[in-house]
Design a protein that fits this description.
Elements lengths: L2 E2 L2 E2 L8 H16 L7 H8 L12 E5 L5 H6 L5 E6 L3 H8 L6 E5 L12 E7 L8 H11 E10 L7
Parallel strand pairs: 3-4, 3-6, 4-5, 6-7
Antiparallel strand pairs: 1-2
Helix pairs in contact: 1-4
C-alpha cells in the first residue's frame, strides 16, 4: 500500500468500465469544485437532521465516500476521530479541506473492499454514494460490518422517478 501526499492508497484504476468512469467523474468533480464553504453548514444540517450530534462525542466515525471532505470537516468537532474514505482522487481535496483538523484521517479506498477493521466504528455514514456502485447491497453489508455492536448507520440514496 503506497502512501502518497500523506494518504494511504488502497485503490487502483478499476477494470470495470462503469467503475472507472465513476471514479474519474467524481475525482474530477470534487477536485475542481472543492470549496465546501458555500453550502457546508446548510448541507450538513440537511443530511444530519435528527442526529443527536452530542452522542458522537469521543466516538469513531466513518465517512464512506467522502468526496471533497465537507461532511468529515463538519462532523469532526462532534467526534473523537473521523476516517474519511473515497475511491477517487477527490481524497486529495478532502485531505486539503480537513488538513487543519487534528482528528480526521483520509484514506483512498473502495467501499466494496474497505481496508478497515470490522467492528471499528460507532457511527458510519454514506451520503449520495452507494447507488453509484456496482454492488450497492454488498457495500451496505460491508458498512454494517464496520459498525461496533450498537453502532449506527446513516445512508442517503438518490431516489429515482418512475413514470
Amino acid at each position: 500500500m503506497p502512501i502518497v501526499r500523506g494518504i494511504p492508497r488502497f485503490v487502483e484504476i478499476p477494470n470495470d468500465e462503469s467503475a472507472r468512469r465513476t471514479q474519474e467523474s467524481f475525482g474530477y468533480e470534487w477536485t475542481h469544485f472543492h470549496d465546501w464553504r458555500p453550502s457546508g453548514a446548510t448541507n450538513f444540517h440537511d443530511y444530519f437532521q435528527g442526529v443527536d450530534l452530542a452522542t458522537l462525542r469521543g466516538k469513531v466515525i466513518l465517512d464512506a465516500g467522502c468526496g471533497m471532505g465537507r461532511h468529515a470537516r463538519q462532523i469532526a468537532p462532534f467526534a473523537g476521530h473521523v476516517v474519511a474514505v473515497d475511491f477517487s482522487r477527490a481524497i486529495d481535496a478532502a485531505a486539503a479541506n480537513v488538513s487543519n483538523i487534528g482528528n480526521v484521517d483520509c484514506v483512498q479506498g473502495d467501499l466494496l473492499a474497505l481496508p478497515l477493521a470490522d467492528a471499528a466504528f460507532d457511527f458510519v455514514y454514506s451520503l449520495g454514494v452507494l447507488h453509484h456502485l456496482t454492488d450497492t447491497d454488498g457495500a451496505v453489508a460491508g458498512l454494517v460490518r464496520k459498525l461496533r455492536p450498537g453502532g449506527r448507520l446513516r445512508i442517503y440514496l438518490y431516489w429515482r422517478r418512475h413514470g
